[in-house]
Amino acid sequence: MTDVIVDMSAWIASFRSTAQPVLLKTMKELIGGGRILVPGIIQAELLRGAKGAREVQSLHGVLSSQKYLRVEESFWQRLGYFTNQLFLQGINVPLPDAYIALLAIENDVELLHCDRHFDLIAGKTKLKVFKLPG
Predict the structure, then answer these.
(1) Does 79 map to a domain?
(2) Would you say the pTM of this structure is higher than 0.85?
(3) pLDDT, tens digit, for every residue of 102-130?
């Protein structure tokens, strides 16, 4: 398997006691293989949602074992164009979702998510959605 971006929606779903076993297994395999590309915004969202020092430490351990996904200054202009093109096609999504989708497109990687916005984006762009096995 190749590297994957995991959206916050999938991270959150995997933390729930009601998480699908296939999602838990997939996340464990991705984390264990160091195959998750972590954009700064997802790193910040994960750490912001931690419920204490122990969770922060645990998340830091997981995140530091993955690949940090940097963006260059010109990315922001491309993101503005990308969101404009989505809007002109009738797709209005939160800016963080567009940011993550464009990163996945530009890095030619799949996106693991549990958020309908990404399915809308994938329907009009080259965004590749990670399909859980089974």
Answers:
(1) yes
(2) yes
(3) 999 999 999 999 999 999 999 999 999 99
